[in-house]
Design goal:
By secondary structure, this protein is of the alpha/beta class. The protein has a single domain, classed as 3-Layer(aba) Sandwich (Undecaprenyl pyrophosphate synthetase). The chain has helices at 26-32, 37-58, 77-100, 116-129, 145-158, 166-172, 218-229, and strands at residues 18-22, 62-69, 103-108, 135-143, 183-186, 205-208. The longest helix has 24 residues, at 77-100. The protein binds 3-methylbut-3-enyl trihydrogen diphosphate (2 copies) and magnesium ion.
């Protein structure tokens, strides 16, 4: 169980233990090339592979990728079904590779609106990779930060809890198995959270880039990590209170 960053000051290491990414800009990448939006989603998968490789090389423990938000159901039906199909096919084709690279796959989100075949594939992929202890790759699909907090609170209510504590809620959030993200990256130029990990991003370092997701790669990830390494993470304290190794003055 991991402590909450607002209760216990986290263990800050040179390489972020947990990187969370909003993979944005697929549609614009395609539009620039006069291609249909979905071509951008397809190319986005190559960037995912590259970023996973970079995380493994760097020794990142958790990589969390926002693939589909609870609000993305508002998109045109054809795009939604293309994305669901792409997810299904990626699970079919990539799970063996994840397994041979010692990667554990987790999927967070509601899952209620997924088709039975996709839900079954997810369960199977999670089961197959459950014992891997290299990198944990979490895909957030049909995920929303507000949904997550509410399902956690409702789980506590169902247990008869009368007062919700931080620690109790942390244990019910869908990423209870991971430390909070150290580094948050959003590609595509927008500077917003778009209902991603609202609770868990409390003290994450934020990194925004104009690069569109299909153009993002291992090198770009390393640049984001280099930016992270220049930051001073104080968690409410003064610079003078920090251990020498963590000061950036
Ligand atoms: C991100 O790219 C992928 C998903 C939200 C599924 P977008 O599809 O949002 O691309 P832009 O923002 O329209 O360029
Ligand atoms: C956020 O991107 C969600 C994912 C990348 C899955 P969006 O493109 O949906 O975000 P907004 O609508 O621009 O905030
Ligand atoms: Mg977008």
């Amino acid at each position: 169980m991991f402590g909450s960053s607002t209760q216990v000051v986290p263990d800050v290491r040179p390489v972020p233990r947990h990187i969370a990414i909003i993979m944005d800009g697929n549609g614009r990448w395609a539009k620039k090339r006069l291609l249909p939006r979905v071509a951008g989603h397809k190319r986005g998968l190559d960037a995912v592979r590259d970023v996973i490789g970079a995380c493994r090389r760097l020794g990142v423990e958790h990589l969390t990728l926002f693939a589909f938000s609870t609000e993305n159901w508002r998109r045109p039906e054809e795009e939604v079904s293309f994305l669901m199909d792409l997810f299904l096919r990626a699970l079919e084709h990539e799970v063996e590779r994840l397994n041979s690279n010692n990667i554990r796959l987790r999927v967070i989100g509601s899952r209620q609106r997924f088709g039975a075949d996709l839900a079954a594939r997810i369960a199977e992929a999670e089961r197959k990779t459950a014992a891997n202890d290299g990198l944990t790759l979490t895909i957030a699909a049909d995920y929303g930060g507000r949904w997550d907090i509410l399902q956690g609170v409702n789980a506590l209510i169902a247990e008869g809890v009368t007062e919700v504590t931080e620690q109790a809620l942390c244990e019910k959030l869908s990423m209870h198995y991971a430390p909070e993200p150290d580094l948050f990256i959003r590609t595509g130029g927008e500077q917003r959270i778009s209902n991603f990990l609202l609770w868990q991003l409390a003290y994450a370092e934020l990194f925004f880039t104009d690069q569109l997701w299909p153009d993002f790669d291992g090198k770009a990830l390393e640049d984001a990590v280099a930016s992270y390494q220049r930051r001073e993470r104080r968690f409410g304290r003064t610079s003078e209170q920090l251990p020498e190794a963590l000061r950036r003055d």
